[in-house]
């Protein structure tokens, strides 16, 4: 059925509001495609937070000092907290957290592919903080100005905590880099493994990114994948120097004409493979999530039954 | 006649701080094992919070234990370079997580104990132990509230949750007697008023647990084959595995800093 006149005029008014940089709020009218794009994006972000607890949580019980253990535990707890606000932000669009979790478990919604790589050594905790959180912040700072109000506001709060995590990751690696030769090597090995996947976090090149144009027009996305990736590289290269660690790209160099760093080609076949479910940990991450969900079902059911009984008691009184 | 209260010796402080610090460290480790496996996202946050609070208490207590020992050991040397026979924690806290009912029952037993102990220790004669307890008691109250609520929900929830709760009580009940054993360090500390006598917290502990279980349709297990030995370094098999995991990286790089 073609859109009616009134739908067209609503859509025009919606676009005008966006063009005037007004935020979209939960009760505002919005096109169905805007709503579904926002739900998908916020859910994917929320899922990334909770799946991301696994690779880092992997090192809590083995953290090599009690101070580092406390920092890591607090960080992973923040991720659970971010998951909570983001699911709540998605719920303002008329979906339920449970539905979204079911879509995740059914493989019908995605999470950031970066978490399909394993954390093999303690230095990976630092590399995730420095590179993965660094890439996430680059992306999320742009999202603090995204058009959907609840998401933009959640981003402000999350960015603050993420910057803290990034500094902690940097500091962890700095300690290793200037530590014993074995520690230095552990740090270098982690950076070698995480650098390219971190660059892939910004998504495919603009020319191959089908959603970008509409998302830009709606100001869901404010900066393109390639521009964000370049920002991240420009920010990170000097930090690697300060850490005394090499980035595993022989083509990386400062381009005086562009006033940016040039970098080598990204292996997009690897990216597609991991996004498509064939990464080193895709099966494991989903299996752990599913097991936690299934093993917790009786607990959630008991809580609901008890809650129901309490309410029954109150209303009977 | 007034008697000047005797002070707890450095050795006495060391022994108490080590035992209580080990309780916190080991239980924090167990709670952290839940990361990414909790039944609900809110519970991920709550369990991590409990683990963090206990880790913070462990760090203060082990630091104090190191200072009063006089051998120059800090929190990390005490946490990472002692073997299981040198750990002084209760057997209760090293018991595996089991299902969520087991974890919450263990927490209920421990937090009820810790809250009673810290409240009195905070008013005790040893200022450094009192300071740690004064901060810790606020945390213990929150942990206690959390575990009490879950025991009620599980006890009165569904048939399955009730069955699992009752089974968890039976599994962990044998470890509760050790909480109130008059170990020599405790007796020395109680003699000078740094800690309450164990009997002073045993009675309120039983009263509190019995009342909660009765209100949650749960039964006190009829069991008397008590397990103990943790305070003397005689542990269950579980602790060795826990420490192997906790200590391996630190020990693989002696003299490294992190």
Characteristics of this structure?
heterodimer, A: 317 residues, mainly alpha, two-stranded antiparallel sheet, 2 strands, 2% strand, globular, B: 258 residues, Ferritin, 10 helices
Protein topology:
The complex is a heterodimer of chains A (317) and B (258).
Chain A: H1 5-19, H2 32-57, H3 66-91, H4 97-105, H5 123-143, H6 149-177, H7 181-200, H8 212-217, H9 225-243, E1 253-255, E2 260-262, H10 268-278, H11 282-295, H12 297-316
Antiparallel strand pairs in A: 1-2
Helix pairs in contact in A: 2-3, 3-6, 5-6, 5-7, 5-9
Chain B: H1 10-32, H2 41-69, H3 75-80, H4 91-94, H5 100-121, H6 127-155, H7 159-172, H8 184-191, H9 198-215, H10 237-252
Question: Overview of this structure, please?
Answer:
The complex is a heterodimer of chains A (317) and B (258). By secondary structure, chain A is mainly alpha-helical. Chain A contains twelve helices and two strands. In chain A, a hairpin with a 4-residue loop joins strand 1 and strand 2. The mean pLDDT of chain A is 95. With 258 residues, chain B is mainly alpha-helical. Helix content of chain B is 66%, strand content 0%. The mean pLDDT of chain B is 96. At the A-B interface, helix 2, helix 3, helix 6, helix 11 and helix 12 of A face helix 1, helix 2, helix 3, helix 6 and helix 7 of B.
């Amino acid at each position: 059925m073609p859109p009616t006149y009134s739908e067209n005029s609503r859509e025009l008014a919606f676009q005008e509001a966006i063009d005037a940089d007004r935020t979209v709020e939960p009760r505002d009218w919005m096109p169905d495609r805007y709503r579904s794009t926002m739900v998908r994006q916020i859910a994917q972000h929320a899922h990334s937070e909770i799946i991301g607890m696994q690779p880092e949580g992997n090192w809590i019980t083995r953290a090599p000092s009690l101070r580092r253990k406390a920092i890591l535990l607090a960080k992973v707890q923040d991720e659970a907290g971010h998951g909570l606000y983001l699911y709540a932000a998605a719920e303002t669009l008329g979906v339920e957290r449970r539905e979204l979790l079911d879509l995740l478990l059914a493989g019908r919604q995605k999470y950031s592919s970066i978490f399909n790589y394993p954390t093999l050594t303690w230095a990976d905790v630092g590399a995730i903080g420095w590179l993965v959180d660094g890439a996430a912040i680059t992306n999320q700072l742009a999202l603090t100005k995204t058009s959907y109000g609840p998401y933009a506001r959640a981003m402000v709060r999350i960015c603050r905590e993420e910057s803290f995590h990034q500094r902690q990751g940097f500091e962890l690696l700095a300690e290793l880099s200037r530590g014993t030769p074995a520690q230095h090597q552990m740090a270098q090995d982690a950076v070698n493994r995480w650098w390219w996947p971190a660059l892939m976090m910004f998504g495919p090149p603009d020319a191959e990114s089908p959603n970008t144009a509409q998302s830009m027009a709606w100001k869901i996305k404010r900066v393109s994948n390639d521009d964000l990736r370049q920002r991240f590289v420009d920010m990170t290269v000097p930090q690697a120097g300060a850490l005394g660690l090499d980035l595993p790209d022989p083509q990386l160099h400062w381009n005086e004409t562009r006033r940016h760093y040039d970098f080598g080609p990204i292996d997009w076949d690897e990216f597609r493979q991991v996004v498509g479910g064939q990464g080193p940990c895709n099966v494991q991450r989903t299996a752990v999530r599913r097991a936690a969900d299934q093993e917790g079902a009786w607990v959630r059911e008991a809580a609901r039954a008890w809650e129901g009984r309490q309410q029954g008691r109150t209303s009977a009184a | 006649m007034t008697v000047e209260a005797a002070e707890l010796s450095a050795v006495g402080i060391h022994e108490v701080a080590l035992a209580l610090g080990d309780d916190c460290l080991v239980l924090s480790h167990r709670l952290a094992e839940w990361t990414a496996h909790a039944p609900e996202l809110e519970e991920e946050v709550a369990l991590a919070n409990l683990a963090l609070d206990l880790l913070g208490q462990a760090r203060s207590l082990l630091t104090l234990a190191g200072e009063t020992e006089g051998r120059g050991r800090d929190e990390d040397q005490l946490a990472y370079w002692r073997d299981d026979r040198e750990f002084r924690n209760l057997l209760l806290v090293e018991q595996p997580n089991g299902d969520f009912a087991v974890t919450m029952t263990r927490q209920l037993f421990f937090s009820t104990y810790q809250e009673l102990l810290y409240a009195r220790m905070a008013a005790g004669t040893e200022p450094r132990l009192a300071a740690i307890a004064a901060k810790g008691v606020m945390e213990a109250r929150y942990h206690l509230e959390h575990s009490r609520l879950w025991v009620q929900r599980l006890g009165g929830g569904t048939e399955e949750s009730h069955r699992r709760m009752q089974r968890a009580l039976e599994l962990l009940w044998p470890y509760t007697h050790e909480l109130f054993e008059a170990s020599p360090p405790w007796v020395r500390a109680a003699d000078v008023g740094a800690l309450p006598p164990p009997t002073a917290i045993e009675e309120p502990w039983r009263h509190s647990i019995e009342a909660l279980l009765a209100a949650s349709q749960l039964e006190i297990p009829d069991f008397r084959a008590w397990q103990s030995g943790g305070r003397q370094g005689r542990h269950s098999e579980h602790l060795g595995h826990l420490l192997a995991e906790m200590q391996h990286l630190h020990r693989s790089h002696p003299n490294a800093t992190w």
